[in-house]
Predict the 3D structure of the following.
Amino acid sequence: MGSLKISMIGSGYVGLVTGTCFAEIGHKVICVDNNEEKIAFLSSGGCPIYEPGLPEMIARNIAAGRLSFDTSIEEAMRETDIIFIAVNTPPREDGSADLSYVENVARTIAENLSSLPNNSYRLIVDKSTVPVETGDKVSRTIRYYAPHDREFDVASNPEFLREGSAVEDFLKPDRIVIGVTSPRSEALLRELYEPIHAPLLATDIYSAEIIKHASNSFLATKISFINAVSKLAEATGADVEMIARGMGLDRRISPSFLSAGLGYGGSCFPKDVKAFHRIAQEKGIDFSLLKEVERINDGQRKNFVKKVHEALWVVKGKKLGVWGLSFKPNTDDMRSAPSIDIISELLKEGAEVIAYDPVAMEKAKDLLPKKTVYVNSKEEAINGADALLVLTEWKEFRFSDILEIKKLLKRPIIIDGRNMFKPQDMTRAGFVYYSMGRPPVLNDER
Ligand SMILES: NC(=O)c1ccc[n+]([C@@H]2O[C@H](COP(=O)([O-])OP(=O)(O)OC[C@H]3O[C@@H](n4cnc5c(N)ncnc54)[C@H](O)[C@@H]3O)[C@@H](O)[C@H]2O)c1
């Protein structure tokens, strides 16, 4: 078990999960956020995000005295070995990462270094996803605003957890990457991660920063690749699921991230692909491959709406039952979810949208058009509807009784953006069924 003192600045999906997990492996952690409401909620035992296993872990570590919450960076920095920066780095209009939150925290850290005893050393670690050379800028900012005699290092420790399985991903990662500039910072970070058994790659800060952007961009490319293949499958009568299986059996390719569908969404891939392209452009590198990845991704949402047209002809006045709003299952994160573009377009065309999601409906209300109707069960969403639209492949949808679905729908039509059902089952049950990259099941509707 570890025993370092850590302050985590930013208590969102990443800061809260990683801070709690560091406490779980024995370190003493203060999670800080400038959102007072969030900190009050966390301090009272609440958990502001949906993440399996997290609420129990927060409660356990608060009770053990290893985890606490604060709104003050100054307070958290007073007695700490490592200060993590885990604030948001949202995209700006031009696609570059907005680093103002990181800069703001760096400045606050610098200003508070002056109130520490003369010989105190602090390791400042960037966990937010940032463009290459941000570590240099954080370092420069701290040097500029802090008293000259304060000793500190800046390191990079990108985070690879996935929402929906974040706790598990953090505790059993494929790898840990640290970008360091001194033996002292490397030793501290090795000690921090000592209880976690995973390959640890220690490298320079620039490479660590690029590893994160390159990894996410590569995965996004894989998704767009199979989605481009799915269009070819649709044009020829091939089956993208079979193609993906055949490709994935090659160990050099691997089956993961080869699912054709509505494309990637969420808070990371869309912004990281943009930011990676942008930083390459700033350095004079042509990485237009990433622009194509984005174009294919956007196209999948349009491709889905086209299928709704094919299935229903006129959308105006039709009642559409939507299953799933979050950008993927097991999370309530709605950022850049395909459901936003798809539902907005269908409402614009005059459809009535009745939506159900097991956990994301509250967050969806801020992002979806006001006309969206929310209901409390998957059955209510499709009762009397002209068609079922599957936008997120939650487990509770996957194991639905298809005859029950047929009974509830006004017409037996399903447009499945996640290839959740088997075309053979749909044929047998008498559905009109459109999915991604597979021949449609038309039955006798035509
Ligand atoms: N969400 C993911 O799955 C994921 C995975 C890997 C990496 N990342 C990266 O981690 C970073 C954080 O992402 P997130 O999803 O946790 O974001 P988030 O928006 O959920 O959380 C960020 C938090 O930082 C807080 N914050 C902002 N400025 C602050 C300040 N000055 N002082 C204190 N708190 C402040 C915000 O109030 C917010 O609670 C991003 O760079 C993201 O790209 C995210």
User: Anything to note?
Assistant: The mean pLDDT is 96. Residues 205-236 form the longest helix (32 residues). The chain has three domains: 5-203, 212-293, 300-434.
